[in-house]
Specification:
Chain lengths: 357, 293
């Protein structure tokens, strides 16, 4: 079936705003709010896609044509194609290729570990991000509701944008503070599903890398990007042990992400004053502790007249793992710097009652 | 709500950065100014988790070379400072080597840039008590990077408790933030980031030509500064810088200590010291002054 679509979007961004206040004695010398200029952009997106079938083959092909206008105009054609091949009723193979051009992107603010980004649109200073993805997947079903899925992928990314470590958010020095890199992502996703019987759920493991290409000691080398989290493991199980009763268990593990942290410190006299320089030596050089969490839940369901009554007792983060949400920096009296991880959401028990009609 | 938020947030134990390079380096800061003795400070770097009270180096030795010829050596004092008997001149090729036990030798070499030429300084008062400042900067061969600073010379009056004048001969310098059309110079960004209202720029847009500057100084910074201070002169200071000093100053101005708060630390300081941190800053400074009635 052929599908055809058109979308038109308009965006307004105000990337940065600062307040500044200066008082000398009782005299207010400076009191203002500084903000970057608003940027507006428009995007027209036209796409067409179709499925073709031949015996055990199925091909889904499409193309997106995008016209993007900010202070300059951009156009792109973004083809994508997926090929499926089934082997009997239980096995299938999938191949995929796609080109993607991204005109809106989130610049990760270099605040240490704070998961904030500043949304910007492509403009004369920031060219759009472009990527090419290749993937291959295999799926196979077994008796008693078991299913295995595996998918490998590789993605080349051009013009990945990051704010320079220690630099401020994009304001007026946008073109000096935003650096572009070539990047790559690759990985293998595996999942085992069980959908029948008293015990159902899935176990998944993903090995993935997200890297940037930089010059280190005169040589091109790959380093970790902010969200380079190689290992991601999840177990989600639901067990129905009595009529109306079932229990769930979820355990997640993911490698910690990276932040950019200064490595060296020294004194320099700048404009007549001694300044302690806390020097960045590289991008994304500090990995925060790994993330893992266990959730448990017991649920009771019963029909009442025309409704379903459901009681749930759940415990979030059972062993009270203090996962890092962001990192605060603290300077000790002796000048040394500490990285203090802050977590949110410790152990949280809850009781839930619901009636569904 | 606050209690709930505090309960939901909890601190973990700190975690440590494992430095890629465990070796500490010499930190050298040399000031090579046309017409002045070369000054030098030697220190050392430390890891980010180290106690910063130990940033000094006590046994350093500095060797000075001019135009390829060894001239002299100096031993920094306990604070790490030393002043050479050598006087730098525009066009000199200066090479500096610093040695200290336990550290790799650090060195740097660069040329002292030519002296900038300032002329045609004129100041007038605007209708709104703002100041209009005009002057010309002549770009010369051998000067590519500049810093520019506008300062007011204020005569201060000190009053006794009975408000009777007892002293009026104290003069002080105060940097004056300026504005320019098109915000090429003295934009708010620089005022905020450096706190000194010093502008750094290259000659890219006026290479080998005269740059006519027409600046406005807000009345906020002139007559309203303090009723006991009177503006008596304005000084314009322009320095031609070597590329490394320009890179250092601009790299530091890109950092944001003002707005960083608890979540941001660090900065990136560009430098030109091989096997070390810091800078050999070469410059030539010109200054002109206009007295006000």
């Amino acid at each position: 079936m052929t599908s055809l679509g058109l979308s038109v979007n308009g965006y307004t961004f105000r990337p940065a705003e600062y307040s500044y206040f200066l008082q000398e004695n009782d005299f207010i010398a400076y009191d203002t709010t500084l903000q970057s200029d608003n940027t507006t952009s428009r995007e027209v997106n036209l796409f067409i896609q179709d499925d073709f079938k031949y015996k055990n083959w199925r091909i889904r092909a499409g193309i997106h044509g995008v016209f993007f206008q900010s202070d300059v105009n951009f156009q792109s054609l973004q083809p994508r194609i997926s090929v499926f091949r089934s082997f009997g009723k239980r096995k299938s193979l999938e191949l995929h290729y796609g080109r993607n051009v991204q005109y809106l992107f989130s610049l990760p603010d270099n605040a240490n570990g704070v998961p904030l980004g500043i949304w910007m649109s492509a403009n004369s200073n920031l060219e759009p991000l472009e990527s090419y993805v290749y993937s291959i997947g295999w799926s196979q079903s077994f008796d008693q509701g078991w299913r295995l899925r595996a998918k490998g992928y590789y993605r080349d990314v051009f013009r990945v944008k990051n704010i320079f470590p220690g630099g401020r958010a994009p304001f007026e020095a946008l073109d000096q503070n935003v650096f572009e890199h070539t990047g790559r992502n690759y990985g293998l996703e595996t999942t085992v599903h069980k959908s029948e019987g008293d015990l159902s759920g899935w176990i998944s493991y993903t090995y993935s890398r997200s890297q940037l290409k930089v010059i280190d000691a005169g040589l091109w080398t790959w380093i970790s990007n902010q969200f380079d989290r190689p290992h991601d493991f999840a177990v989600v199980l639901d067990y129905k042990w009595r009529k109306n009763w079932h229990a769930g268990i979820t355990w997640n593990f993911a490698s910690g992400h990276y932040i950019s942290a200064p490595e060296k410190q020294y004194l320099l006299e700048v404009n007549g004053e001694n300044q302690l320089i806390q020097q960045y030596e590289s991008w994304f050089n500090l990995r925060v502790p790994h993330y893992h969490r266990l959730d448990l839940g017991i649920h009771h369901e019963r029909r009442i007249a025309n409704a379903t009554q459901k009681w749930s007792l759940t415990v979030y983060n059972v062993y009270n793992r203090q996962n890092v949400y962001f990192v605060r920096t603290e300077t000790n009296p002796n000048g040394s710097l500490n990285f203090q991880p802050i977590n949110v959401m410790p152990i949280l028990p809850s009781i839930n009652y619901a009636i569904q009609f | 709500m606050c209690c709930m938020t505090l309960w939901l947030m909890a601190c973990n134990d700190e975690f440590m950065l494992v430095e890629r390079d465990q070796n500490e380096k010499l930190v050298v800061q040399a000031q090579v100014v046309d017409g002045e003795n070369i000054r030098l400070h030697v220190g050392r770097s430390l890891g980010i988790h180290d106690d910063t009270s130990k940033l000094q180096v006590t046994d350093a030795k500095a060797l000075f070379f001019v135009n390829g010829t060894y001239k002299e050596s100096s031993i920094p004092d306990e604070q790490g400072w030393c002043t050479s008997t050598l006087v730098a001149h525009s066009g000199d090729q200066i090479r500096l080597e610093v040695q200290s036990v336990g550290f790799e030798d650090a060195y740097s070499a660069d040329e002292v840039p030519v002296l900038p030429v300032l002329s045609n300084l004129d100041f007038s008062w605007g209708m709104d008590n703002s100041g209009n400042l005009r002057f010309t900067l002549e770009d010369r061969e051998g000067a590519e990077y500049y810093s520019l600073r506008i300062q007011g010379v204020f005569r201060e009056f000190v009053l006794d408790p009975a408000n009777q004048l007892i002293r009026d001969s104290i003069f002080s310098l105060r940097t004056l933030p300026c504005e320019s059309k098109g915000r090429l110079f003295f934009s708010d960004r620089n005022f905020i980031s450096t706190g000194t209202a010093e502008e750094y720029f290259t000659d890219e847009i006026f290479k080998n030509q005269n740059l006519e500057l027409d600046l406005r100084i807000s009345p906020l910074h002139l007559r309203n500064v303090n009723p006991l201070k009177k503006l008596v002169a304005i000084e314009v200071t322009c320095s031609s810088l070597n590329a490394a000093q320009y890179a250092l100053l601009t790299s530091l101005s890109l950092s944001d200590p003002v707005h960083g708060g608890n979540f941001r630390a660090g900065s990136y300081a560009s430098g030109n010291i091989v096997n070390g941190f810091g800078i050999m800053a070469c410059s030539a400074q010109a200054k002109i002054r206009v007295n006000l009635p």
